[in-house]
User: Which sequence fits this backbone?
């Protein structure tokens, strides 16, 4: 284990790769600081550029972008009270009051330290769990993978979207979009309307950039005003009491985030909010709660949970090739563009490469901690630059990125179309996460289904692991329908009482 | 090594001058600018790397940059169409292979004639391996044949959709041992990597793919390549099909160069001669060896005959399959 | 904007659902076409896309009818977020912030959106003719003046600098940008 890590570290510790990690942290934070944009957008927009590097440098830079994006999100939340994305809501709730008290520096430092801790512990968790899951995964045949794919799809459709109907129909749309083009297995063109342009199919890169890049940026550009108040930063060093108070929440947040993050559908943002809620209840029970007025525990816990869940998601991604949510789906897409297929072999055949990836997480965390904290004043100023200055340029970068994947003008149109569709979905409150999951998992669903049936006509009765996954998938559907019903009755009661 | 390279460059230059002098009409100073090499796959795969190795060697010899551009999609048809429709000045070329040429002869609604292009050269080739799980009890080709013949309908073999030379390597074996391909239990896969994984796990009884696809699982002891269809210096221990008594099983896959149909003969000649000069290039041999391939240059009429024969073989083997 | 709401549904909900149903129908039709080809492999694919198409169209349609809209909750994330916010409003001294606020009035936003998309489409259409540098410079200039409504001089400076910088950056990483047929 340790020698694997050392080998990985040796791979990463070159001037060139450290330079890319630095650049990635900088660019990721830059995107994260922009109000309304988060790590998912940062990855979507920037990863076409990383594909021009050798795979390991590309991954190093991508990891740095991802972490930078998360870090930048909480910076804006704490300093100017604009949570760029849902995950940094707690940071705004507790961090901004601290900013008003002149403790902004301390809030930022605690946020950085707790997510650093969770990142480090989470990376170690991925290394330990990942290789053992990968060993198990060698026994995962097509039926088991089919069960896992079904579970991942229903979990994201049920948890991330409110209505199971909408979630599943968007997942079906994603699956269909992934099928468009030339079907290798049957040797025929599918849903192309007879044109050879569509026979190229929709590539992952332009679709992702469209949905999460163009869509989000256009929305931010056209709906978001830009009146951010400035506040003094205060001292960066947290007081002893602040540090002592954040130790336990950080530990709890890391453990909760990492363990729930292993499950498809439990996104980092959900874990951050749940951790906030739990920390608050715990503090209120114990008495002395400052929640709502800048309680440091409400920053430390959620930040750790957010980062821990992000790390947890890498276990099923790297060992089984199954993403737990949209950002992991994007990372999967990136890995495939690099020519790597995540799966059990990542920890056996490509062990050196995989330890390189994991070390790059550690490196990104360290860089962010020691480099970004001193840069906080700069980020604070940047957060106040109106987005419509940089936004148009970012839009162009998105379209260029879409073109570069296959050097195809068709892909530029696909990208813009996906962006406009994402805007429409937002207005119609249709969830994008199941769409992405369906798009990424569609080919795997079709392939494993065919393989399972070819292997045995009654595979679903013979494979206990498949049966377990299918059972959990059905339970997920039932649970989310039950939750929706309960929600409706509680609404009705509220109406009746008022 | 330097000397050899120099020598081959000199030889190439001499050959060039000779052809140029011999044929006044075809005199050309090609190439004078960068050449765009279209690769019909996505970046990162073994075939992409092979095409890039070829591009690099070509650029060194020609003294002009050769820029590889990936145009993936539609079973390589997008890339072939793109090159077919490009100006035939020799500055847009295709990194060709069986999948983008001879195998396309089997497709029904192709937007072009599959052999309506200038085949310039084959540069390198790789061989296939028949692989089974280490736990299968099968240890030789004879064991394998016995197992297939015993009950073909319960014998499962990985199938890549008939769009890859690997599938035809399998069909060649079945034809050789008189087993009806339609009786076999085919399990579909989209890549030979996944297929090898499934064979190692015992989910399918046999997988066939390029020798390089078996490398990792072979070295970890999970997979046994029973025989290889041609030379691969990376696998000295795996017997050749010919040594096992099956010289007929000789399917290879190749990487080569082709251009639009009305490409100027003089330009094609320059490229062919340059590539011939590369057959002894040690650097090129080394970079192909890493990919499990050997430099195996074939040009001119010989290459055209090779292409025709390959297409005929595919058609014949494909005929054994019902839809 | 008279058609803003039909049966309590916004135009966006209606048109998005319409698109989804059409997509499902298209998949169904294409599946039928594939079935007639008769090959076993094709009929498998056909069945697969037909099932997906039916699920897509049916669930999209069902999600509009009042029964299922009543049964639809928010996503888990949104529910927790709302709980968190209501709790903190009870205790917080600071002004409650608008979460992910949309501070531009809808009419204005719509105008900006249409202009942005129009400009992006012109960039795409012009790209094959005038190349990356000219198209991008022009786009940034017009966008700054027309959509962001900024002053002329800073807009020109920004457009020139960022076009040059991005083109140089792409060159440095080894990216080959599309070149125009009229201008390089």
Assistant:
């Amino acid at each position: 284990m340790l020698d694997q890590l050392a080998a990985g570290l040796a791979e990463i510790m070159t001037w060139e790769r450290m330079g890319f990690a630095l650049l990635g942290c900088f660019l990721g934070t830059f995107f994260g600081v922009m109000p309304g944009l988060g790590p998912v957008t940062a990855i979507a927009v920037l990863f076409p550029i990383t594909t021009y590097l050798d795979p390991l440098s590309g991954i190093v830079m991508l990891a740095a972008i991802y972490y930078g994006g998360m870090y930048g999100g909480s910076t804006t939340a704490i300093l100017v009270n604009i949570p760029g994305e849902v995950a940094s809501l707690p940071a705004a709730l507790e961090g901004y009051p601290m900013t008003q008290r002149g403790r902004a520096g301390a809030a930022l430092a605690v946020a950085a330290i707790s997510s650093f801790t969770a990142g480090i512990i989470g990376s170690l968790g991925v290394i330990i769990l990942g290789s053992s899951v990968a060993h198990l995964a060698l026994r995962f045949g097509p039926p088991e993978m089919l069960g896992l794919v079904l579970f991942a799809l229903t979990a994201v459709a049920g948890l991330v979207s409110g209505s199971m109907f909408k979630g599943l129909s968007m997942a079906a749309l994603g699956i269909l979009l992934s099928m468009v083009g030339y079907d290798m297995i049957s040797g025929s063109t599918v849903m192309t309307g007879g044109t050879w342009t569509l026979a190229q199919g929709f590539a992952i890169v332009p679709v992702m950039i469209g949905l999460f890049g163009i869509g989000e940026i256009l929305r931010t550009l056209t709906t978001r005003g830009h009146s951010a108040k400035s506040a003094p930063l205060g001292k960066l060093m947290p007081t002893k009491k602040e540090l002592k108070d954040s130790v336990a929440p950080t530990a709890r947040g890391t453990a909760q985030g990492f363990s729930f993050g292993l499950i498809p559908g439990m996104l980092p943002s959900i874990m951050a909010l749940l951790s906030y809620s739990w920390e608050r209840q715990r503090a209120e029970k114990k008495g002395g709660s400052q929640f709502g007025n800048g309680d440091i525990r409400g920053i430390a816990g959620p930040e750790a949970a957010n980062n821990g869940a992000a790390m947890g998601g890498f276990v099923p991604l790297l060992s089984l090739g199954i993403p737990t949510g949209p950002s992991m789906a994007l990372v999967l897409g990136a890995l495939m563009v690099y020519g790597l297929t995540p799966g059990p072999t990542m920890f056996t055949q490509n062990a050196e490469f995989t330890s390189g990836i994991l070390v790059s997480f550690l490196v990104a965390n360290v860089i962010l901690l020691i480099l970004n904290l001193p840069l906080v004043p700069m980020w604070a100023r940047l957060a106040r630059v109106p987005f419509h200055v940089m936004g148009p340029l970012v839009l162009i970068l998105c379209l260029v990125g879409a073109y570069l994947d296959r050097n195809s003008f068709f892909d530029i149109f696909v990208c813009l179309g996906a962006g406009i569709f994402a805007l429409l979905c937002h207005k119609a409150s249709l969830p994008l996460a199941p769409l992405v999951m369906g798009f990424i998992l569609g080919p795997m669903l079709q392939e494993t289904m065919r393989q399972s049936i070819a292997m045995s006509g009654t595979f679903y009765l013979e494979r206990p692991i498949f049966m377990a996954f299918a059972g959990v998938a059905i339970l997920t559907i039932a649970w989310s329908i039950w939750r929706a019903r309960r929600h409706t009755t509680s609404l009705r009661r509220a109406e009746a009482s008022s | 090594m330097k000397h050899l390279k120099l020598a081959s460059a000199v030889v190439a230059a001499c050959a060039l001058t000779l052809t140029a002098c011999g044929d006044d009409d075809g005199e050309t100073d090609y190439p004078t600018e960068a050449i765009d090499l279209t690769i019909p796959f996505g970046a990162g795969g073994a075939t992409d790397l092979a095409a890039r190795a070829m591009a690099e060697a070509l650029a060194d010899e020609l003294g002009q940059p050769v820029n590889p551009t990936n145009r993936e999609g539609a079973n390589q048809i997008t890339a072939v169409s793109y090159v077919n429709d490009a100006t035939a000045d020799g500055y847009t070329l295709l990194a060709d292979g069986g999948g983008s040429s001879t195998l396309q002869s089997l497709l029904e609604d192709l937007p072009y004639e599959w052999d309506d292009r200038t085949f310039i050269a084959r540069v390198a080739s790789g061989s296939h391996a028949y692989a089974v799980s280490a736990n299968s009890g099968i240890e030789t080709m004879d064991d394998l044949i016995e197992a297939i013949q015993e009950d073909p309908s319960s014998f499962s073999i990985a199938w890549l959709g008939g769009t890859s030379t690997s599938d035809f390597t399998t069909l060649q074996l079945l034809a050789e041992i008189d087993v009806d391909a339609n009786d076999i239990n085919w399990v579909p896969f989209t890549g030979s990597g996944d297929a090898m994984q499934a064979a190692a796990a015992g989910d399918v009884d046999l997988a066939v793919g390029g020798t390089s696809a078996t490398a990792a699982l072979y070295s970890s002891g999970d997979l046994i390549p029973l025989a290889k269809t041609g030379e691969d210096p990376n696998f000295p221990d795996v017997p050749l099909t010919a040594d096992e008594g099956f010289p007929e099983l000789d399917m290879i896959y190749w990487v080569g160069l082709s251009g639009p149909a009305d490409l100027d003969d003089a330009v094609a000649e320059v490229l062919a001669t340059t590539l011939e000069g590369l057959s002894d290039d040690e650097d090129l041999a080394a970079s192909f060896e890493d990919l499990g391939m050997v430099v195996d240059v074939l040009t001119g009429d010989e290459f055209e005959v090779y292409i025709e024969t390959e297409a005929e073989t595919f058609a014949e083997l494909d005929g054994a399959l019902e839809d | 904007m008279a058609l803003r709401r039909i049966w309590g549904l916004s135009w966006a909900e209606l048109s998005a659902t319409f698109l989804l149903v059409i997509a499902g129908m298209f998949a169904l039709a294409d599946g039928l076409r594939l079935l007639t080809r008769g090959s076993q492999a094709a009929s498998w694919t056909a069945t697969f896309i037909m099932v997906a198409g039916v699920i897509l169209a049916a669930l999209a349609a069902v999600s509009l009818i009042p029964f299922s809209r009543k049964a639809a909750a928010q996503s888990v994330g949104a529910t927790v977020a709302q709980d968190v916010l209501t709790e903190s409003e009870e205790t917080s001294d600071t002004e409650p912030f608008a979460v992910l606020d949309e501070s531009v009035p809808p009419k204005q936003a719509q105008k900006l959106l249409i202009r942005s998309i129009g400009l992006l489409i012109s960039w795409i259409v012009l790209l094959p003719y005038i190349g990356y540098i000219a198209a991008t410079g022009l786009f940034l200039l017009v966008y700054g003046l027309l959509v962001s409504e900024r002053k002329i001089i800073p807009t020109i400076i920004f457009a020139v600098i960022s076009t040059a910088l991005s083109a140089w950056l792409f060159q440095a990483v080894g990216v080959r940008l599309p070149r125009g047929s009229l201008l390089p």
